[in-house]
Amino acid sequence: MNNEILNTMIWDEHGLPRSTAFDDQYFCKELGYEEALYVVCQGNDLRGRFSRLDPAVKGEFTFIETGFGTGLDFCCVWQLWAECAPPSWALHFISVELYPLAVEELVRALSLWPVLARQSRELAAQYRPPVSRGQGAGGIGNYLFADTRTRLTIVFDQVVPALAAIREKNLAPQGADAWSLDGFAPSRNPEMWSDAVFAGMAALSRTGTTLATFTVAGFVRRGLTARGFTVQRILGHGKKKNVLTGCFRTASGE
Ligand SMILES: C[S@@+](CC[C@H](N)C(=O)[O-])C[C@H]1O[C@@H](n2cnc3c(N)ncnc32)[C@H](O)[C@@H]1O
Question: Which domains does the chain have, with CATH numbers?
Answer without folding.
Answer: 31-248 (3.40.50.150)
